[in-house]
Every structure is written in structure tokens, then in C-alpha cells.
Specification:
- The chain has 224 residues and is of the alpha/beta class.
- Helices cover 49% and strands 12% of the residues.
- It has 9 helices and 7 strands; from the N terminus they run βαβααααβαβααβαββ.
- The N and C termini lie close together (5 Å).
- About 8% of the residues have low confidence.
């Protein structure tokens, strides 16, 4: 991992692990812009559709039924009533998101959250790829505190979001987002706070020493 001249940080995260919080706090410390929830508005503007539609479908992967429906567009059968718009909207949103992210990255520095950006910018000079994860029980507690959900709902939401993001990266980048080789540094935020993780990333960006290459006691893994 090159610690000098970093001007782009991608943040991958499990749902409830604190990825958006890390990006926001890191942006404040470094004075860098953060592209996270604002991406929804950029995509909506690019596609000229309602932001609520983008919110429902961004970072999601089409269902099997939608994929089969889209395939029928090549030679439409006598089967009225098959709605292929679901797939088309999702693929359009993913394409718009990636175009918006690439445009933003042309003017670094930048911190960007999600949307397979660890793959989108794989091999880019000056990019630092970060991933946050945490045990499910820890994430359930955080989600309950943040959204007021009960434990069953929080667990279901966490599993669904994780699966949606996994399928998104698999569909659009043909890789497994859990592959450790995609990342320069990973944090277990069940064993360290998000603020502590922010401190580590800040030191990496500033070219300062961060201690041992791998510190399992603190839940930090740094690739060299």
C-alpha cells in the first residue's frame, strides 16, 4: 500500500458498521468532500427521475424475474403484462452512479462511500480502499439505537442490505466484495470505535506511522 499522495478514499461497509460515519468524520478532519447520500440526488438529476425512486433502488441488484423479463425484450413473446422496467431502472441507476462517481473523482481529493468503488478504482494511483465490518449483534444494537427498530427487524435489515450490496458488486464488477485483496485496510468496528478507525486512516493519508501491519487486538488489518 502506498501511503504517499493519497487523494481518493473508497469506503466499503457492512450495514451498521459505521461506514457513512467514518466517511463524514474523516472528511471533516481532512477537509475533503464526501460523496455518500448526495449521490442519490446526482443520479436522480442525471436520469431526470424522482429521488425517492433512486433511494429505493441504488446499490441494489435486479431480481431473477427482472433479468428474465429483460431478456425477453430481444424478441418479445405474446405475453403481455411482463414488466421489465424494474431491471432497466436499476441498471440505469447503477450506470448513472458510476458516471457521477468518476466525474467527481476527476477533481480530487474525494471520499466516496459504497457502490463498488473499491472495484471501480482498483489499481488507481493515490486510491486508498477501506472496509468496515462488525459482528451482527453489534450492528443490531447500533441499528436499533439509530432507527428505533426491534432486534428482529434490525437483523433482517442488516442481512438484506449486506446481501443487496454483495449482489450489486457481483453483478456490476464480477467480484466478491468480501475479498480482502480489494482493500488496503479493514476495521472491525466491534472491537474499535469508528472514531479510532478514522484516526488510523487519517494517519495513513498523512503518511504517518500506523504501528504494526496487522493489529488483531485492535481489530485493524493493513495490507502492504
Amino acid at each position: 500500500m502506498q501511503s504517499a499522495n493519497i487523494d481518493l478514499i473508497t469506503v466499503s461497509r457492512e450495514f451498521g458498521a459505521g461506514g457513512s460515519d467514518l466517511a463524514r468524520m474523516l472528511g471533516e478532519r481532512l477537509g475533503w468532500p464526501v460523496l455518500d447520500h448526495e449521490l442519490v440526488f446526482r443520479c436522480a438529476k442525471r436520469l431526470n427521475i424522482d429521488t425517492k425512486a433512486v433511494e429505493r433502488m441504488h446499490e441494489c441488484c435486479p431480481s431473477l424475474l427482472a433479468r428474465l423479463s429483460a431478456a425477453l425484450l430481444v424478441s418479445p413473446p405474446e405475453a403481455p403484462g411482463i414488466d421489465t422496467s424494474h431491471l432497466l431502472r436499476i441498471d440505469s441507476i447503477a450506470e448513472a452512479a458510476h458516471e457521477s462517481i468518476r466525474e467527481a473523482a476527476e477533481h480530487p481529493p474525494l471520499i466516496v462511500v459504497g457502490h463498488g468503488t473499491q472495484c471501480l478504482f482498483a489499481g488507481r494511483r493515490g486510491a486508498l480502499h477501506v472496509r468496515l465490518f462488525a459482528p451482527l449483534d453489534v450492528r443490531i444494537t447500533r441499528l436499533r439505537d439509530r432507527y428505533g427498530w426491534n432486534a428482529v427487524t434490525a437483523a433482517a435489515k442488516a442481512r438484506q442490505m449486506d446481501e443487496d450490496r454483495r449482489r450489486y458488486v457481483q453483478r456490476y464488477f464480477h467480484t466478491d466484495l468480501r475479498d480482502a485483496l480489494l482493500y488496503d485496510v479493514q476495521f472491525n468496528t466491534g472491537r474499535m470505535t469508528v472514531e479510532e478507525a478514522v484516526g488510523v486512516v487519517e494517519r495513513i493519508v498523512r503518511g504517518e506511522a500506523v504501528g504494526a501491519a496487522v493489529d488483531h487486538e485492535q481489530g485493524v488489518g493493513v495490507s502492504s
